Amino acid sequence: MRIVQGADEGRRTLLRRQPLGETTLPDAIRRKNAALFGADLPVEQQVRRILDDVRREGDAAVARYTAAFTGRELARFEVPRAEVEASYQHVAAPLVAALREAAERIRAYHERQREHSSRSFSEGGIGMQVRAIERVGMYVPTSPGAVYPSSVLMTAIPARVAGVSELVMMTPAGGDGAVAPLKLVAADIARVDRVFAAGGAEGIGALAYGTQTVPRVDKIVGPGNIFVTVAKREVFGSVGIDALYGPSETIVIADDSANAMLAAADLLAQAEHDELATPILLTPSAAVAEAVGVEVERQLRLLERGEVARTSFAARGGAVVVASVEEAVALASEYAPEHLCLLVRDAAAVAKTVRNAGGIFVGDDAPESLGDYTAGPSHVMPTAGAARYASPLGVHDFLKVTSVVAVDAATLRRAGPAAAAIARAEGFTAHARSIELRLDGGERDGGAAK
């Protein structure tokens, strides 16, 4: 494991972020896409072409790009309800029970969150009306060897708690051309209304614009690969989006009281996500950094996805030796990681000093992996530094506020003159007159308003 000395060197190396869209695609994908588009185009240009085609051609474009990228010809995109119901036959009962338990914990947390979310109110004729978004499209990724039923629960349940009327899931089919039964079971438990088997930018385009079979949604939520992320950015405005998610990232802060084995396990839990993941240790102890490095190497040999984790460590992982826990917290807050794990003395007190993080995992008994599955909060969290201004996916992402103005004549008399004065100063005399006519009882302009 790479170890660098000092906060400044950490900023220059391990903690330096790569802008969205500058991800280097594997050569095999670049060659395939160049053959499809006739040139080795940047990701943004590829995505725009796909979206334009989906907007014009609908299902035909989705089918064409699905076949081009996956080699599979899909006769239909929507997964029949009967197939969803039959999926339970292919998933072991204990795993179904585990998904149900996770769903209940996620639902309970978000019901509490709903209690504290914006509520409708009206005072003195001024207020707001809070309603759930009517139709939401949720994207659930698939990657080699990973199905992500947890992401189905973590995305769909907050939407249901918020009161979304219709929930549509878009997810790539597996290598056999079908959506994994485990993912369908999770969708049923989370009460997803419809499931469509398509992925990438074409799947996002179908949700954003609608096709002959896919309904147009009001908002798209959920993480995905670079093509999904860029597509979400491109369609924003036509529909709402929750956020732009990048690869998984975790910072572990460990002092000399930390268990090196646990610190390494927490880093590896994120490194195994994909080869672009970022696992970083911040510690004031060079000895801890060395010990964690030894543990990382030992544990890598025990993992099914060890090569993926090894690649992510080699590219973006490592340790930064800093002056103190306080400096580690300041550096982590500056980086604003998706996950921040605190393996330090008095971790609860240290947690209160963190300014920016998607989620804080406090102490040895609160591993980030628990948050991925059964702790309760959604594991769909801000990445790429967005924790400086954004929050984990939650009930609030599925609510919208409508301002309501229903003042009486007395309030109009009090507030109207200032409004009219400002309107005239801005050159908007029609704005001013619409107020002044009411204040004058419709007698201005020779009573023309009567």
Structure in words:
The radius of gyration is 26 Å and the shape is globular. A 6-stranded parallel beta sheet has the order 1-11-10-9-12-13, with helices on both faces. Helices cover 46% and strands 14% of the residues. Helix 3 (43-57) packs across helix 4 (59-70). The protein has 3 domains: 3-20 and 247-375, Rossmann fold (3-Layer(aba) Sandwich), CATH 3.40.50; 26-119 and 131-242, Nitrogenase molybdenum iron protein domain (Rossmann fold), CATH 3.40.50; 407-447, no CATH class. With 450 residues, it is α/β, with parallel strands linked by helices.
Q: Characteristics of this structure?
A:
450 residues; alpha/beta; Rossmann fold; five-stranded parallel beta sheet; 14 strands
Summarize the topology:
Elements: E1 3-5, H1 7-12, H2 27-37, H3 43-57, H4 59-70, H5 81-86, H6 93-116, E2 121-123, E3 126-132, E4 135-139, H7 149-162, E5 166-171, H8 181-189, E6 194-197, H9 200-209, E7 219-221, H10 226-235, E8 240-241, E9 249-254, H11 260-271, E10 278-283, H12 286-300, H13 306-316, E11 318-321, H14 325-335, E12 339-343, H15 347-351, E13 359-362, H16 368-373, E14 399-405, H17 409-425, H18 429-439, H19 444-447
Helix pairs in contact: 3-4, 3-9, 3-10, 4-9, 6-7, 6-8, 7-8, 9-10, 11-12, 11-13, 17-18
**Alpha plus pi helix count:** 19
Write out the CATH superfamily name of the largest domain. Nitrogenase molybdenum iron protein domain
Number of strands: 14
Percent range of helical residues = 40-55%
Beta content? 5-15%
Overall geometric form: globular
Give the CATH level 1 class of the largest domain. Answer: Alpha Beta
CATH architecture of the largest domain: 3-Layer(aba) Sandwich
Q: Which structural class do the helices and strands define?
A: alpha/beta
The value of Rg in angstroms is 26 Å
Main sheet: strands, sense, barrel: 6 strands, parallel
| CATH level 3 topology of the largest domain | Rossmann fold
Task: State the low-pLDDT regions, or none.
Answer: none
Rounded average pLDDT: 92
